[in-house]
Amino acid sequence: MKARLAILRSSAVLGGIALLLQGCGGNGSPTELSPQEQLGKSIFNDANLSLNRNQPCAACHDLAWGGTGGRMATNAGGAVYEGSVAGRFGNRKPPSMAYAAISPVLSFDAKSGFVGGNFWDGRATGLRLGNPAAEQAQGPFLNPAEQALPDAACVVYRVAASSYHALYGEVWGGNIFTINFPSNTDALCAANQSVTLDTADRAKVTTEYDNIGRAIAAWEASSEVSAYTSKFDAWKAGMVVLSADEEKGWALFNDKAKCARCHVPDGPKPAFTDFTYDNAGVPKNPANPSYATHPDFIDTGLGGFLMLRPDLGPYEPQLGKYKVPTLRNVDRRPAEGDVKAYMHNGVFKSLLEVVHYYNTRDVLPRCEATPSPTIGVNCWPAPEFAQNMNVSEIGNLGLSAVEENALVAFLTTLSDGYIKR
Ligand code: HEC
Ligand code: HEC
Questions:
Q1: Residue 282: nearest ligand to its CA?
Q2: What angle do CA 121, 415, 269 make, to 5 degrees?
């Protein structure tokens, strides 16, 4: 709401005169944050909240890269990031943390299927805290392949001892400072051991760990992160016109290329996702280091999560499906030559490759059965998971090369930082 008002206000004041500056905004922008949002930002950037005090959330989520990871060699290869402990990797590409906080609590309806949640597989459902992003934010601190701390008590203990502890008290009160941590807590956490607490202190840890999640989610929802300051937003506000190519891409996006069916661009502040789940038939990323130890690894997405939560619904129809990601900031990166990775496993390395795949997945033969295969030229590899693949909206769009390029031109209008605050 705040961000939208800011845009309207600027357009009113400047009467539609362009106040445009490529590459501005994002990290370090002058946007004013509420104390809770500022607290979330401080926690997000705190490397001490990892086992070896070497990895903040921001290591894998950088606004200058549109909220995904900014390590180019990683993006160009396996696209999975190393955690606090060297040699441990996750097995998915970091999606953007921007606009994650607008995802609703996971629910099911007969028409759309599953809707909402955070993570590629929706496992941060939001059912407990009413806020998927707040629940998501509790995951990485304790994930052995990420920040790798052994116990939520270690996160709370380190936050209580942080340089921003006073701000924490201002936002959430003094409860955190009344927890009776054992005197060797520091050593236990550093040695990857859990902390023994009595029931009352354990309950306080749970309360404060929830507050830590809520603060991070508040920053992710703030106008600094979910900024709505793209050229597209400026165009919607009547402040700027799109180029002929961009406008052509926008028309294709909504009609012939069918993108709008899932990456929904409707409403005053479109999310470019409907928060549903689909199997786009994406091939494996052979550079994923998981294959060295688990050559048969197959990511089953939402279905894999539902196997563990049968109370939420049958898993079979959801195998191989991933949450439709927002397309905001898909092209955003520090410089034009910089490589980003796309899709849950980061197999694609450019937007043109993504669009060409959507266009021709079911037109070109499979590489596995093609002599002298060249990916994307005379073939596509088999899907990572063939069951439940969407064949009605994806795979054979009949787009020309000119139309593919126009779609990419449109996608580049979704990078925040175009409107200067
Ligand atoms: C080592 C890299 C790494 C670190 C550190 C990390 N993340 Fe992530 N993040 C990922 C990956 C990979 C995923 C996707 C995982 C999945 O879907 O299973 C992800 C997913 C997310 C999402 C979900 C977005 C969506 O649309 O569903 C958010 C939000 C997010 N991370 C925020 C955070 C926060 C907050 C922290 C710190 C508490 C953090 N990340 C730490 C790699 C990382
Ligand atoms: C049937 C729903 C659907 C349609 C139609 C669709 N997408 Fe997607 N899109 C998805 C899903 C689901 C993913 C994630 C797939 C995965 O990771 O395996 C995705 C991923 C993407 C990504 C990668 C984003 C990232 O952060 O990695 C881009 C870019 C994209 N889509 C663009 C498009 C464009 C352009 C079109 C139209 C040509 C389109 N999509 C049509 C569902 C859809």
A1: 2
A2: 70
